[in-house]
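Comment thread on ticket #2218

A.B. wrote:
> Attaching the input chain for the structure job we discussed in standup.
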Amino acid sequence: MLILRTIIAVAFGALLAANVPADDASPQDSPDYPGWKELWSDITLGVGIAAVDYPHYPGSPQSDTLVAPLPYLEYEGDWLSIDRDGIQASLFKSDRAKLDISVSGSLPVNNDDDIIREGMNDLELILEVGPELELKLAQWGNNTLELHLPLRAALELDPSNGIEPVGWVFDPRVHYEWRTQSTEFEIDLGAYTADQEYNQLLYGVSQPFATLARPQYRAKSGLVGYRLSSTIQYDVGAWSFLAYARYMDLGSAKNTDSPLFVDDSYVLFGVGAIWRFKYADSD
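C.D. wrote:
> Ran it. Output below, let me know if you need it in another format.
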């Protein structure tokens, strides 16, 4: 998701900047500090705005619309890069395979605004991060076909309790990409699965929150849904325009018998625009 990935990228960029190696010849807070100069020359900065319409969670009958301004950051290092796709750290790379870092997540849900989950604990912002193996299946012209195999740890960012692990997600998919100088188009087709702990967070009902209409339920590990997603980006000058859509078929999900599972389809759509006002120096 564009909004979440951009927030993660900017936050990670700030952390990267805060850990530039010290130089004894200059104080770290000086604008002439060499480490800062080198880092600054490798960074592209921008601002943007994005709008996204998203279901509260897979299986929820309710959705929200979020419109938000976004800072934007791009960084290209020897092994680490940050851009609109989030954080990519090349841990291993060959002509046919690459071991990368996968980042995803979901936006928070206030359960007071959710009819089915009313009275339960809120769903906080969830960050998913972990290794991703990318295998190149074919390449011709501007086209690339790959198999992506990400395994991510899910972390709930709770303002009260800090960062808490809430399970694991496996998100295998076939990835098609078409690129030109100004346009990038991607399609992903795959399955989204999670362990029992993560599914319990979404679909479980513990005894204190059980009612006549919402009986106690213990979630099972397994399939959340089959998913099809697509992203298109068009660049013109300093501007980038993006659109993103995701559809999930939840009819074969493991937890369709949960009282929190109502809708067997999931549709998310988002659009965004980014203006870059500072570019990385080209050597």
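A.B. wrote:
> Thanks. Noting for the ticket: The chain has three helices and 14 strands.
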